[in-house]
């Protein structure tokens, strides 16, 4: 029988704990401190760390209860040891070490971003031999060639400045929408014309192919939106916010999907997994689904509750490395706020 893995996520503002055996999810509990940050218009690391501290033990207990297991049944502990906020990571890693030491079970410190990909195995089953993965969130925008989720992940490119979700949040603020702006911009975009304004598509010119074929940049786009809105206001015209949102969202989705499909062709990959909180974005989902169908690429996007930060993604990756018999992490591991995406397990 596959090992019963308890996974702990605490990289940002969600405390997540899940139990997984093989690719079967037995329980998944998430406590979020998002409401405590909303009034500040951004995550406050100190507040997030304290919230993790308060939520950790009740969340572990709740996950065990829902799975119908006790701590004694757990065969391995997995924890996201990076990348993320140092204070937040420290709470999860400390809890995981205490459990591993107390239970005498192996500890696996795994990469949060790769967890966003691994979680899809709980939903759509084992990955084929090679997949492409687009991980998009408030903190990340990375294109990964996954030869093996437990051992061989290659980062083809990433954002050089803002993450996709971050750009949405900034445009949301610009348009006077509540924080976090991403989902509000998405909603507003449905009422606008995506072709109304020709916003720039960064790093998509022929000259960018040599060095930045798979990198992204969204800060120039965000500035272009700001300038466009300012010019409109300076002329005394009412800002057509729905058209701005729709044209901005179309530019982001276009760049993400164009580069991802190019990578699938270049590396001969027939399956794409999209993960991370921004994969809730409907413009990205529609564009990716339509263009993958045209290109004959299978697209796998987990349901939204598995795309935002959660414990299941960490338990899923822990299960993949534990089942593979990989060497567990030392109990002396630290947290790595900028863990490279080629590191699956520390
Ligand atoms: O992965 P996630 O939950 O948190 C981390 O950043 O780790 O991602 C949340 C990000 C936020 O920036 C949020 O505004 C954005 O994803 N987001 C969206 C949508 N839903 C969430 N952006 C655009 N459209 C959405 N529907
Ligand atoms: Zn995340």
SSE blueprint:
Blueprint: E1 4-9, E2 14-21, E3 24-32, H1 34-38, H2 45-67, E4 76-82, H3 86-103, E5 107-111, H4 112-118, H5 120-124, E6 131-136, E7 141-148, E8 152-158, H6 164-174, H7 182-189, H8 209-212, H9 219-234, H10 241-267, E9 271-275, H11 282-295, E10 298-300, H12 304-307, H13 311-323
Parallel strand pairs: 1-4, 4-5, 6-9, 9-10
Antiparallel strand pairs: 1-2, 2-3, 6-7, 7-8
Helix pairs in contact: 2-3, 4-13, 6-7, 6-9, 7-10, 10-11
Bound molecules: 5'-O-[(R)-(carboxyoxy)(hydroxy)phosphoryl]adenosine (KG4) and zinc ion.
Zinc ion binds next to helix 4.
Describe the structure.
This protein has 13 helices and 10 strands. The chain has about 350 residues and is α/β, with parallel strands linked by helices. The strands form 2 sheets. It has a 5-stranded mixed beta sheet, with helices on both faces. The protein has a 5-stranded mixed beta sheet with strand order 8-7-6-9-10, sandwiched between helices. The chain has helices spanning about 35-40, 45-65, 85-105, 110-120, 120-125, 165-175, 180-190, 210, 220-235, 240-265, 280-295, 305, 310-325, and strands spanning about 5-10, 15-20, 25-30, 75-80, 105-110, 130-135, 140-150, 150-160, 270-275, 300. The two termini are about 25 Å apart. The model has no long low-confidence stretch (mean pLDDT about 95). Helices cover about 45% and strands about 20% of the residues. 5'-O-[(R)-(carboxyoxy)(hydroxy)phosphoryl]adenosine (KG4) binds near residues 182, 185 and 277. 5'-O-[(R)-(carboxyoxy)(hydroxy)phosphoryl]adenosine (KG4) binds next to helix 6 and helix 7.
């Amino acid at each position: 029988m596959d090992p019963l893995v308890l996974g702990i996520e605490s990289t940002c503002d969600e405390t997540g704990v899940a139990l997984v055996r093989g690719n079967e999810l037995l329980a998944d509990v998430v406590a979020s401190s998002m409401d405590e940050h909303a009034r500040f218009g951004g995550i406050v690391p100190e507040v997030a760390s304290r919230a993790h501290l308060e939520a950790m033990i009740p969340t572990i207990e709740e996950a065990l209860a829902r799975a119908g297991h006790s701590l004694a049944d757990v065969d391995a502990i997995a924890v996201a040891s990076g990348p993320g906020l140092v204070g937040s990571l420290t709470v999860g890693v400390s809890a995981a070490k205490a459990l591993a030491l107390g239970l005498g079970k192996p500890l696996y410190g795994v990469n949060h971003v790769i967890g966003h990909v691994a979680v899809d195995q709980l939903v759509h089953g084992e990955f084929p031999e090679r997949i492409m993965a687009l991980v998009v969130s408030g903190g990340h925008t990375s294109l990964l060639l996954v030869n093996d989720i437990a051992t061989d992940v290659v980062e083809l490119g990433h954002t050089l400045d803002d993450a996709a979700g971050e750009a949405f949040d900034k445009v949301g603020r610009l348009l006077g929408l509540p924080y976090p702006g991403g989902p509000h911009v998405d909603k507003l975009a449905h009422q606008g014309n995506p072709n109304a304004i020709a916003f720039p598509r960064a790093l998509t010119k022929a000259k960018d192919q040599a060095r930045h074929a798979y990198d992204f940049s969204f800060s120039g786009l965000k500035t272009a939106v700001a300038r466009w809105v300012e010019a409109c206001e300076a002329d005394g015209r009412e800002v057509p916010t729905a058209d701005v949102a729709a044209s901005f969202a179309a530019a982001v989705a276009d760049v993400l999907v164009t580069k991802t499909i190019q990578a699938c062709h270049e590396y001969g990959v027939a399956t794409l997994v999209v993960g991370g909180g921004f994969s809730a974005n409907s413009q990205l989902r529609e564009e990716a689904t339509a263009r993958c169908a045209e290109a004959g690429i299978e697209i796998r996007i987990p349901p939204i509750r598995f795309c935002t930060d959660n414990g299941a993604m960490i338990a899923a990756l822990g299960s993949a490395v534990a089942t593979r018999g990989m060497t567990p992490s030392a109990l002396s591991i630290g947290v790595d706020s900028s863990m490279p995406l080629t590191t699956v397990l520390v």
